[in-house]
Design brief:
Blueprint lengths: L5 H5 L4 H33 L13 H28 L2 H33 L7 H22 L3 H15 L2 H11 L19 H33 L4 H10 L1
Length: about 250
């Protein structure tokens, strides 16, 4: 089947081919993000029961935990695109890495912010220099450093190479974030959801968190696709197909 053909997928490595595909996918992922967010928030804030220890303050978890997962996942995906750009010298891979970085930084900030709101009633303070919190803060600095380095270098190829190397070096921080509560005696609680064991929470709580995770995932894809289209137009502005597209839209 053509769908499983190598050539079928390789054709979308071209910015010219990927640009219209991204435009078609954006409304679907954006719509899914809106619907899933409304469903997830409704389950989390109106259906899920009150926690017997934390009361209603725990409900920030339905934003905090999915945002934390996405902050790490997006960095790994960004790093993979950066590696492809360095190894295969594919323009689209570097563009996708650049498109993902702002969304990853946003989710990292949301993680830290909601964590502070959750920490105040739970720990009695907004911030502690805990291994999990500190490594997540480092992740935010890695995102910001990646974007700052790209902006500081005028030559796109040099910017891609330098920022790609930074992303590859920084990816070691992701497993540190994930395993920090196991490697060190931290104040942060352990994982409530694991691939090897059943979730230690009510079914409605788990459902709300998973729905919100898919909502954030759909949002990240929609925003990254929208942003990469802008990057493609900027980088390929002298290409004939971009010029023709601009003339058609006038």
């Amino acid at each position: 089947m053509r769908l499983f053909s190598k050539d079928f997928w390789f054709q979308y490595a071209s910015p010219k081919t990927f640009y219209p595909l991204a435009g078609k996918l954006i409304p679907w992922f954006a719509g899914a993000a809106v619907i899933l967010t409304l469903v997830g928030l409704y389950i989390g804030f109106f259906v899920a029961p009150v926690d017997y220890q934390q009361g209603n303050s725990y409900r920030v978890m339905f934003i905090h935990v999915p945002a934390a997962w996405m902050s790490m996942l997006i960095y790994v995906v960004m790093c993979a695109y950066a590696a492809l750009g360095l190894v295969l010298n594919t323009r689209l891979s570097d563009m996708m890495a650049a498109a993902l970085a702002p969304t990853g930084a946003m989710f990292t900030f949301v993680t830290l912010w909601t964590g502070a709101l959750w920490g105040r009633p739970t720990w009695g303070t907004y911030w502690v220099w805990d291994a999990r919190l500190t490594s997540e803060l480092i992740l935010l600095f890695l995102y910001l450093g990646y974007m700052a380095l790209r902006s500081a270098i005028d030559d796109p190829r040099r910017a891609s190479r330098a920022s790609g190397l930074l992303a590859l070096v920084g990816v070691i921080n992701v497993p540190i974030i994930y395993f920090s509560v196991q490697w060190w005696n931290t104040l942060h609680q352990g994982a409530s959801v694991s691939l090897t064991s059943a979730p230690t929470m009510a079914a409605t709580m788990f459902a709300a968190m998973i729905v919100m995770t898919f909502a954030f995932w759909a949002y990240a894809i929609a925003v990254a696709l929208y942003r990469v289209r802008l990057i493609i137009l900027e980088r390929e502005r002298h290409a004939r197909w971009v010029v023709e597209l601009a003339e058609q839209e006038r």
